[in-house]
């Protein structure tokens, strides 16, 4: 067993994402989350490399429109061990701190992060990923983003994922979330609740 025991493994605390068509060959995945942290704090979790690797990936680049913004996943499995992926090159299409970050990425298409204050003084995140993938990959992508955005809640509470043990600790969570999406991801006007 890994060292992620202090992190939440109830991936049902946030509602499911949705899938909508996007162009002739693409889909738009949308996940909506409400976090108690302020938009500037959530923005930092997407743009500060020291914070992104707490919950998402390693980042190389700056959150400025036109800048490179490369991603390296930290939970890739190889021969039973967690390893890092290769760098997936990307570029910042739009950066308006702390409301909007839009990225293009060689592996993940277009990633858009919209942040707005919610009624409780926290942040509403609307996360979209527009990409062209085979139908069988859509539930995998939704499950991946679902789990990463759950990890974001933990990171906002100061807790970091131990990536070397992610497969032991969180792959069963991912499998459960994936099974739910594989059974029939919702289409839905871009709002997962």
TrEMBL record:
Q: Where is the Activator of Hsp90 ATPase homologue 1/2-like C-terminal domain?
A: 37-156
Q: Which domain of life is it from?
A: Bacteria
Per UniProt, what is one Pfam family of this protein? AHSA1
Describe the family membership recorded for this protein in Swiss-Prot or TrEMBL.
Belongs to the AHA1 family.
Q: What is this protein called?
A: SRPBCC family protein
This protein's species is Arthrobacter silviterrae
């Amino acid at each position: 067993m890994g060292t992620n025991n202090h992190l939440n493994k109830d991936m049902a605390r946030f509602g499911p994402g949705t899938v909508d068509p996007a162009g002739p060959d693409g889909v738009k995945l949308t996940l909506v989350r409400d976090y108690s942290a302020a938009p500037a704090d959530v923005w930092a979790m997407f743009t500060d490399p020291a914070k992104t690797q707490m919950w998402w990936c390693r980042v190389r680049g700056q959150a400025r429109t036109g800048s490179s913004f490369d991603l390296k996943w930290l939970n890739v499995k190889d021969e039973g061990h967690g390893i890092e992926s290769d760098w997936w090159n990307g570029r910042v299409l739009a950066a308006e701190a702390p409301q909007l970050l839009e990225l293009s990425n060689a592996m993940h298409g277009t990633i858009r992060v919209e942040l707005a204050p919610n009624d409780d003084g926290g942040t509403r995140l609307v996360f979209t990923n527009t990409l062209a993938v085979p139908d069988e990959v859509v539930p995998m992508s939704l499950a991946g983003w679902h789990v990463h955005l759950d990890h974001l809640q933990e990171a906002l509470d100061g807790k970091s994922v131990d990536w070397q043990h992610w497969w032991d600790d969180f792959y069963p969570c991912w499998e459960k979330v994936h099974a739910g999406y594989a059974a029939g991801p919702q289409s839905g006007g871009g709002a997962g609740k």
